[in-house]
Design goal:
Helix content: 55-70%
Order of helices and strands: HHHHHH
Number of helices: 6
Mean pLDDT: 85
Shape: globular
Distance between the termini: 40 Å
Number of strands: 0
Largest sheet: none
Strand content: under 5%
Number of domains: 1
Length: 139
C-alpha cells in the first residue's frame, strides 16, 4: 500500500512539474513553433524579428536589448506602482529605438560594459518591483 501511495504521489508531482516546465514539443519530440505559454501574461508582445535571426557571434546585441527592455519596464512599474501585463511587458518599440540610438554601433566590449550597467541599475530596483508585482499577482 505504501508503494502505491508513493507511486501515486510521484506521478502527481511529476505531472504538475511537467505542466509547468515542459518545452513545446510534440509526442515525436519535434519542437513546435506555437507561442510559448507562460505562467503569467501570455499576451506578451513579439520581440523584434532580428533578435531571432542574429548570428550567434552577435548574440551580445540581443542580450543588451533584452536587458534594456526589462530595465525600462521595471522602471515604469516602480514609478507607477502598477504591474499589469501591459506595464510588465510593454511594446518593444521604445526599447528598440533607444537601443538603435545608444548601442547599435557599439563594439562587443562596449555592449558588455553597457550590460553590466543595465544589470546594476536593474538590481537596484529589483526588490521594489518584485514587491509591487507579487502584491498584484504578476510575479
Amino acid at each position: 500500500m505504501r508503494k502505491i501511495m508513493m507511486a501515486a504521489f510521484a506521478t502527481l508531482v511529476a505531472t504538475s512539474l511537467e505542466a509547468q516546465t515542459a518545452p513545446q514539443m510534440t509526442t515525436d519530440l519535434t519542437v513546435t513553433m506555437d507561442r510559448q505559454q507562460y505562467r503569467i501574461c501570455n499576451d506578451r508582445p513579439v520581440r523584434p524579428a532580428w533578435m531571432d535571426e542574429v548570428h550567434p557571434r552577435e548574440a551580445y546585441k540581443v542580450l543588451t536589448l533584452m536587458r534594456l527592455y526589462e530595465l525600462r519596464a521595471w522602471e515604469e512599474i516602480r514609478a507607477s506602482g502598477q504591474c499589469e501585463c501591459d506595464t510588465r511587458f510593454p511594446s518593444w518599440d521604445a526599447a528598440s529605438a533607444e537601443y538603435a540610438e545608444r548601442f547599435e554601433s557599439n563594439t562587443q566590449a562596449e555592449h558588455t560594459q553597457s550590460q553590466l550597467v543595465l544589470r546594476r541599475n536593474q538590481a537596484e530596483i529589483a526588490r521594489a518591483v518584485q514587491d509591487i508585482c507579487e502584491a498584484q499577482g504578476n510575479w
